[in-house]
Amino acid sequence: MTYPMNRSILLILLALSPLVSVAQTPVKKRPIKSSDIYRLQSLSDPQISPDGKWVTYGLSTVDTTKDKRNSDLWMVSWDGKETVQLTNTPEGESRARFSPDGKYISFVSARQGATKGQIWLMDRRGGEAKKLTDLKTDLEEYVWSPDGKKIAMVLRDPDYADSAKTKVRKPYVLDRYHFKADVKGYLEKGSVHLYVYDVASKKLDTLTTGNYDETSPTWSPDGSQLAFVSNRTEDPDRNQNTDIYVIDAKKGATMKQLTTWPGSDNNPEWSPDGKRIAYTRSTASGNFLMYDQPVLAVISRDGGEPTLLSKALDRPVRNPRWAKDGQTIGVLVQDDRQTYVGQYTLDGKLAKVASGNRVFTELEPVASGSWLTLMSDPQTPGELYAIESGAPRRLTHVHDAFLAPLELATVEGFTSKSKDGAQVSNVLYKPANAAANKKMPTIFFIHGGPVAQDEFNFDLTRQLLAAGGYAVVAVNYRGSNGRGLDFTKAIYADWGNKEVLDILGATDYVVEKGIADPDRLGIGGWSYGGILTNYTIATDTRFKAAASGAGSSLQLSMYGIDQYTNQYETELGAPWKNTDKWLKLSYPFLKADRIKTPTLFMAGEKDFNVPTAGSEQMFQALRSLGIPTQLIIYPGQFHGISVPSYQKDRIDRYLQWFDKYLKPKTM
């Protein structure tokens, strides 16, 4: 039965109708811009509750007044319907973990003026968090025991160099082979060791001591033992020969070595029944393992010969996680511009659980064969997803507001052929609404590593460059992973050769296809991407502008001033024994007079990974030669630029530099 509408109600609806239509008007899209860096948030470290009903995660946001990022903790229900913010303080919180009974959430924070991060405990039902620990040294890792009564910790040995009453630090006293590292700085004596903390009594027991590091602790299901990783060779600084050990979780216990592979063994994970340990093992044995890819291995808790489940795959396998039933092991597999979720049976059979032109970066098991993951695609920054029956189901919508007003570049893959016949996989970004069949100014933005790969994920830098009106090309040159071990090892002791052939092959492709304007080509990158920028402009003059970040060229001068001495001596030989090789690889500097490309050089002031000297030398060479150049040093920054305003500044300088030389001047 129906009734005629009340006249007054009808008049109200008619009066409101313009407002309704306005509310439904789609948001006008605009190109992404450098200031959007301040709006972009970042999810990390998802953890599933013991009952499988909630997920905690860290959410990093930019505090523009302090010009830094701050991390708070959030929680989302497994059905994705409820989201709860757990913390909101200026000090920041990280590494949230559920207590095994699910009643509490622990996290790490340097609250209330603390100089060291402490573990805090929060009742899930609400209320203020309470400080659990009073540690005097740096907490590197922590993990709850299965019964929730103890916490295994990795703590760094105390540093007494700053204990003087004055604020003048004592001199660094260095006698290690590996004496410096990015972010950490100069490395004196001091290791990280295992401890067990009793939650009730707050007593801290020492499990390991000495001059060796012990990391990656994980409890056996019965809580009696810890598996961990350590390098117990005579001088761990000179190799990467880590092994898996087990130790009873009590003071005075003796550790037992399980693995004996002369390469690296890492990431131990106990099976649910406690009988086996899954881990990743390097493919190669030997001293330095830069050009390598991890293999999934399983070994008995008593040791013996391991089973190499992914040996035949010839792809990097990471993040091993046992399924709850203990019958399969979930992994992340890097494969030709993708990272997919795979699942291995104990007899070595691999099934793809979730894949496609996207990238999965976290993996945690959930009951009933489901998985928790963090996933990104070219149009969406990382969000949390549940994987059920192979289908991702989105849990968080953190980036909806960020994306709502933006028009983004279209992203597609293509394969190019290099001069020597190599097939190379690449990713192309085209500006939103780019005119069809119109040649565009094009920037080749090269990834670092070199053992990494450009993938079908959300790439902020390339999106911002594309929004500036450029086609942007990402080249997975030889040395990249995701294409097999031989492809990765192809550049061993031969830098700046095959990689440049691959970059130029991709250049030829986009020019021949009418995508790139051959008279408006630019190139840039950071770290090994900066190094390859230098190699490329010293080889070919077709690029009209370049931006080399955190790069080097006079490789001979890098020995002893960066953190890679071990790699150098293994791969290239000592400079005094193999000088010709070092000089050959230094050709961008030694033949700098071949460079005609205006180049912007950039570096972090405190970078010990690729120190500023690498950029300074090339800047000085081009300045002396009269080639347009500029040097930008970011104060207090390490290899990665972390200050938000500096991140924005870097993008702005990229675009200003490329616009100057690649965009036609308007009348």
TrEMBL record:
<keyword id="KW-0007">Acetylation</keyword>
<dbReference type="InterPro" id="IPR001375">
    <property type="entry name" value="Peptidase_S9_cat"/>
</dbReference>
<keyword id="KW-0378">Hydrolase</keyword>
<comment type="function">
    <text>This enzyme catalyzes the hydrolysis of the N-terminal peptide bond of an N-acetylated peptide to generate an N-acetylated amino acid and a peptide with a free N-terminus. It preferentially cleaves off Ac-Ala, Ac-Met and Ac-Ser. Also, involved in the degradation of oxidized and glycated proteins.</text>
</comment>
<dbReference type="GO" id="GO:0004252">
    <property type="term" value="F:serine-type endopeptidase activity"/>
</dbReference>
<keyword id="KW-0720">Serine protease</keyword>
<keyword id="KW-0645">Protease</keyword>
<dbReference type="InterPro" id="IPR011042">
    <property type="entry name" value="6-blade_b-propeller_TolB-like"/>
</dbReference>
<dbReference type="Pfam" id="PF00326">
    <property type="entry name" value="Peptidase_S9"/>
</dbReference>
<feature type="domain" description="Peptidase S9 prolyl oligopeptidase catalytic">
    <location>
        <begin position="457"/>
        <end position="663"/>
    </location>
</feature>
<dbReference type="InterPro" id="IPR011659">
    <property type="entry name" value="WD40"/>
</dbReference>
<protein>
    <recommendedName>
        <fullName>Acyl-peptide hydrolase</fullName>
    </recommendedName>
</protein>
<dbReference type="InterPro" id="IPR029058">
    <property type="entry name" value="AB_hydrolase_fold"/>
</dbReference>
<feature type="signal peptide">
    <location>
        <begin position="1"/>
        <end position="23"/>
    </location>
</feature>
<dbReference type="GO" id="GO:0006508">
    <property type="term" value="P:proteolysis"/>
</dbReference>
<keyword id="KW-0732">Signal</keyword>
<dbReference type="Pfam" id="PF07676">
    <property type="entry name" value="PD40"/>
</dbReference>
<dbReference type="InterPro" id="IPR002471">
    <property type="entry name" value="Pept_S9_AS"/>
</dbReference>
